[in-house]
Amino acid sequence: MTIEITVALEYSFEQSTDIMLQIEAAAIPEQYLERAHIDVGNVEHFARTAGHDMIGDRLWLRTSGLLRVDYTARVRVERILTDIGTLPMLRPANLPGEAVQYLLDSTYCPATEFQYFVQAEFGHLEGGARVAAMRDWIAEKFTYVAGSSGPQTTALDSFVMRRGVCRDYTHVLVSLCRASTIPARFVSVYAPGVEPQDFHAVAEVFLGGEWHLVDATGMAKEGEMAKVGVGRDAADVSFLTAYGPCAMLSQSVDVRTIGSDAR
Amino acid sequence: MTIEITVALEYSFEQSTDIMLQIEAAAIPEQYLERAHIDVGNVEHFARTAGHDMIGDRLWLRTSGLLRVDYTARVRVERILTDIGTLPMLRPANLPGEAVQYLLDSTYCPATEFQYFVQAEFGHLEGGARVAAMRDWIAEKFTYVAGSSGPQTTALDSFVMRRGVCRDYTHVLVSLCRASTIPARFVSVYAPGVEPQDFHAVAEVFLGGEWHLVDATGMAKEGEMAKVGVGRDAADVSFLTAYGPCAMLSQSVDVRTIGSDAR
Amino acid sequence: MTIEITVALEYSFEQSTDIMLQIEAAAIPEQYLERAHIDVGNVEHFARTAGHDMIGDRLWLRTSGLLRVDYTARVRVERILTDIGTLPMLRPANLPGEAVQYLLDSTYCPATEFQYFVQAEFGHLEGGARVAAMRDWIAEKFTYVAGSSGPQTTALDSFVMRRGVCRDYTHVLVSLCRASTIPARFVSVYAPGVEPQDFHAVAEVFLGGEWHLVDATGMAKEGEMAKVGVGRDAADVSFLTAYGPCAMLSQSVDVRTIGSDAR
Amino acid sequence: MTIEITVALEYSFEQSTDIMLQIEAAAIPEQYLERAHIDVGNVEHFARTAGHDMIGDRLWLRTSGLLRVDYTARVRVERILTDIGTLPMLRPANLPGEAVQYLLDSTYCPATEFQYFVQAEFGHLEGGARVAAMRDWIAEKFTYVAGSSGPQTTALDSFVMRRGVCRDYTHVLVSLCRASTIPARFVSVYAPGVEPQDFHAVAEVFLGGEWHLVDATGMAKEGEMAKVGVGRDAADVSFLTAYGPCAMLSQSVDVRTIGSDAR
């Protein structure tokens, strides 16, 4: 499976501003970057640092006025998928230390509040079977509505509203998993088939000693996504974070599967 | 400077529950554990994992009914202090990747919302001078009132209320620093002189390429604290996190400086 | 049904502070005050104003130092109860103007967010039948746990946590009703049988052109409650509101049914 | 002063939905409706009820598909203005009962949290002098930025962000007044000079026994506004409230002063 990604962003900044971008497909074993190119124009500073958990890169820029970012990449995804429904969970006591942060509450995932709900509704299931049931429950109960949430919307809001976009589906699933003592993180990805085309977000759960992608929206296939970065929730993998006032002028994301000859 | 720590906790759990404790002074170069002992009684599981950023340990237990935890330690603190007011900040583009998480919003520190405030009030200062001014501003404007905040209180609430306890002072200072593109994290510590005696919390800011402790409450001296753990905010270094219903029965913390012969 | 109420409150105030009390059983047709006495000691000011929707009174005091309030009353309740399950709702267009405020969002009842949930789960029911089903759903799913919520807890939190005390049950039921375009308000009451004994809170819904009490906790009988006041949520009928720092020293509430000879 | 108002709204509704509109200039003594016309097209129901505090009207409609609302009015405003800076406040004990609701916390105005701030910064001022100082403080510290807030933004957020639109300025001023035991309500108005042209919102404070308009944004003159309705905050006077999913298609508001011959 090979996917082709084309992204164009235009933002404007009132004053000289520090900006963090995280929009490049990560160079990690499960996905091979056949080619990738990013152009940010003339900026004052430019630097590259490792993303959260060392997955993907964050770019730091400093600029004022108009910022135009063009990114294109071709990524061959070779992810081995497992049926998560059969995977065991590790007891918290057996988790590696670096997974523990993904059990804790974060900005958009106040997981502690969901402990009784998961116990009441999914307490008879364990590990991957529980994750699969929670994913299916969200998919059944929720409706995907573009524009129905905003940057302050948390998993609490989404759980009540039963509407949202990919970030909201993911925040709810992540919260339900953490409330079940199953580590879960937020993954920003590129995926074909997302309607309308945009940056996409899915969950990743730690089962059987490894991380596994889960898309509660059902819009994308876990084997066809290119990961950009991971974090505790959307706050960690925002595609653009500005340390000052900014205005979005335009933004386009195009992701497509390319022909079988390219596989 | 040597400090002696004595902690006793009693909690009760309705059912068999996974519990994470983070109450031990960390074994790190700047503080030497002359002795330390923890007793958690008979529990089903017991495991030790590394804390956030590999500082300190988290203990995982599983138990039901009464949990009694006794912890005692003697810690020799040999921290080299610097006048933070003179320290330069690194441009975000020059930060090490692992410090970037400490620029981002977290549960109790919605730092983005503070960008205009810091620019308006402290925009004429840079780096350590700005951190010192923000620390002094908090110390001047805020009143320490035991019981004036709760587990849902965020830096927004505290900023408006101008009252709080150590966690609240720290959340506000951390938020102001992050809004200034200065990485800041939350540190749980033991410190003599805290009134009433309790777990204490302070900020740590990344200036001149290193982390520096800052206590906005002014209750404790940065050179006399024993660090327990670090995190993005209080959610990461809670001394006890339970994955199920629990009730606190009693809790005592005693921290004292021991005689000059021990220094 | 006659009930006897005995309340004692002790609070302390750092400085001269305006205080609003709302703890007296209301003098309204459905309940007759056989006797009532309130003693607030020596205070600077004392005045009585009508409560929200002209139900009950609010007392304004101004004092500093210790405030001791003693209230006793004997109330004969003669409320005519109806089976709400059979009552029709009025279309919003037919509501009296003064009921409309009880359709709108309020501090603890962000009802708008619940619109999709009520439509999905209770959309097949109308009016009183829907209210009864929602009350039963809360009674089945929620667990009453003293101390499980705090003053910042909203209906969103409670809906997710499925735990709470009377105020939380009421906030959730009120929110679900408003999201169904059924006006619903918060009523503070005295009721025998509440465990632990305390101020109690229930919902009141507007069906068939009249207000009807509904206790989602099931702890008290709608025919045996003495109303104190009504409002949009708990913020409107707090038994004590202080415009300055205060500390609660003690508080006791005793409500009991008195013998058949008194009926 | 005579103003001419022209409003056009287009919304679409997936299903038959109850809708409340509050967009008409109120018929009250201080403003005379020379003419007014509203057209909502063919709808299933249509009814008119009194607004909050009996000021203005709320219209209830029920419709599905496209809703197009056209409203035009000519309003002669004859409001007697007073310099609020010299007005005394009433002690809470002397307030009329119906003003007390405007001292309490509401959805967007968590006034209690601001008590210490107003005491610290404005405690040396009383009544109208304090209101004027708080209005000027907001005007000095805040920047009006269209699009900088959203429907979930509260006075806490705005106070920290120091940016917002008219609703945010008003929520902050209302909160500061309530925290000072000065009743304050939210007023939706039409006003010439608002840039960009839109529905406008200002505060109204209860001083000297009467309500007085205060525009913290400084964009409009208190003597040139036509009031639409009042409430505890924006939640009470939303120009359109829908009890079901809806999408805004277009919206235009035009308010202008008409020639001296019309005065």
UniProtKB/TrEMBL annotation, chains A, B, C, D:
PANTHER family: BLL5557 PROTEIN, BLR5614 PROTEIN-RELATED. One of its GO terms (molecular function) is peptidase activity. Pfam families: Transglut_core. It comes from Sphingobium subterraneum. It comes from the Bacteria. SMART domains: TGc. One of its GO terms (biological process) is proteolysis. Keywords: Hydrolase, Protease. Residues 158-218 form the Transglutaminase-like domain. This is Transglutaminase-like putative cysteine protease. InterPro entries: Papain-like_cys_pep_sf (IPR038765), Transglutaminase-like (IPR002931).
